[in-house]
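so my prof wants the structure for this chain in the tokens format not the other one, which i didnt know existed until like an hour ago. anyway here's the sequence
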Amino acid sequence: MSPVTQLTARGPYIDGMQYGNWSEKIFRQMRAGGVDAVHVTIAYHETFREMVANIEAWNRMFQRFSHLIFHGKWASDIALARQTGRTAIFFGFQNPSPIEDDIGLVEIVHTLGARFMQLTYNNQSLLATGCYEKEDTGLTRMGREVVREMNRVGLVVDMSHSSDRSTLEAIEHSDRPIAITHANPSFWHPALRNKSNDVLKALGQSAGMFGFSLYPHHLKDKSACTLQSFCEMVARTADLVGIDHLGLGSDLCQDQPNSVVEWMRVGRWTKEVDYGEGSAAQPGFPEQPDWFRDNRDFENIESGLRAVGFCAADISAVMGGNWLKFFESSFVPDDGRETAKDRPTEVAI
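here's what i got, hopefully its the right format
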């Protein structure tokens, strides 16, 4: 059995969030781990033009490493990835800064290939309130309009870094299910970024998607978190939300220098150093747990879910099947058509 046949014999592996220091090494690890699709961050605090420069950099990588990765735009690209033994890369923003104050740019960024946009990144934005703010005023006037426009064009509303009221209002206001691509439940670990039971229940009732994070600041016991603890938490969340609404969003920040985490947390909004969650004694990136070092370790999660009693169908759903269904209904414009189908029917690799 060929490596491609072996990978396509099981369900897809889809990661709902990564922000690596991208390299051939990482792309080869994606292939070694059988990762079929990854949602990657292409903007934290960038303006529209700066975000376009990041797309230019990705386009060069798509050309150079075309045998390993390609730009994913539609759910059907996951089937193409599995058929050709590559990883589909889906773009997303962790902040609405690339649309600046112009709602017309929502359609433009979708045309450029973006498929997810967070309404906030920790702080108050033009659209909603972030999870670090003391006062949560919910969606703003512009936020409600932008959510409507995101629904129209097929840009997923992501509330991973948003506070409770804003998230609940986004769920209520959005005509399409929203996503929390990378977080964990606060009942397991009370980080500011993790989500309350009220948010989790509302997300499940609205057919939204929740991606479990492997970033140590979001984990119980952080870098010392055990695989069993993580998988038992997934099981408890399934009881609360429903198995059909759960996936993985590792938030893997592989090979990034510590200067990058300062850009993520600080951007241009302060002159001070903000260490975010945890104490000032913990600057920089934390160590990953030993059972999830990089893209080669997704099989460990599959094994861990099996060990705590998940059946094969539910494991497949969490590892990627649920994300695939969500992509199918979320990325297309509201007329239900996939556009820009410019892929060749056969791809040489």
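also thought this was worth mentioning. DSSP finds twelve helices and nine strands in the chain.
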